Fold this sequence. Notes:
Radius of gyration: 26 Å
Number of domains: 2
CATH topology of the largest domain: FAD/NAD(P)-binding domain
Largest sheet: 7 strands, mixed
Distance between the termini: 65 Å
Shape: elongated
CATH architecture of the largest domain: 3-Layer(bba) Sandwich
Number of helices: 8
Number of strands: 19
Helix content: 25-40%
Strand content: 25-35%
Structural class: alpha/beta
CATH superfamily of the largest domain: FAD/NAD(P)-binding domain
Order of helices and strands: EHEHEEEEEHEHEHEHEEEEEEEEEHH
Amino acid sequence: MTEQLRDGYDVVVVGGGAAGLSGALTLARARRSVVVIDAGSPRNAPAAGVHGLLGREGISPGELLERGRAEARGYGASVVSGAVVAVTRDDDGFAVALADGRAVRARRILVATGLVDELPDLPGLREQWGRGVVHCPYCHGWEIRDQAIGVLAVGPNSMHQALMFRQWSDDITYFTHTMPPPSGADAEKLAARGIRVVTGAVVSLEIIDDRLVGLRMSDGRVVGREALAVGAPMVARAGFLAALGLSAVPHPSGMGEFVPADPTGRTEVPGVWIAGNVGDMTAQVGAAAAAGVLAAAQINADLIIEETDQAVAAYREPFSAESEAQVCERVLGDRRHGM
């Protein structure tokens, strides 16, 4: 089903994942006109299932989004396919431009575009992403428990990642790859936890029958592994906000870039909120959905304030300063005479 864009909406939601759809559902239930514009590239698409989501444990990412779209539409929200390339100020609202030339106006914007994982350029790695190659122990740890797990060092978070995955398996190998070998306290921690360290660069993943079986090193040897954890840098999809002066900034953890906002999702640009991984790099599906609900409630409250101010101004409009003074004098006179 192809839905047509109207000229304008109370809220345009950019991104149709858990955060964006939950926000749209909340806004639609608040009787707001809302459209979700979704580019159709969810970060978790390669994963077999969504985990840690109460009541929907193990549901496929595709099915979860299909259900979410149907629920949002059931309350009057629109969900359209398209890639937003720019958001600009337009009088008292925003103009949203799509890659295919379409445009739409919005009074408020909810950004829920998520992140992009900047994966290492190693043969076989991208093809195994979300299956034999993972990043989050809470998302995938149970599925690879007790397997021979490798951790590819690609940044400052890799050491922490190795210690985390040790919770799910006692066979962990830390590959230094492009990072310096651990020393001092870090080396002691790995040794104490029985985590093997392999120095040198990894040049490719060994795949047999679509399954990871090992990592090939630059010296030609293959180190057998059944799963690989990669804490690749993550970058927020936020380039389309540049005209508003809003952009992603480096995360203090060194994990990548995110768009900063207050705890409700309100950004420094009035009228623009964010929800989900675009602002919270560690949020799983449940947390992203909750953030979408919270941001939507704040957007609705902000619109109510604006509409109330406009109603008060319209209510006062028929009265000139002279007539308002006369009314006040009449009221005061009535009070003086006990009326």
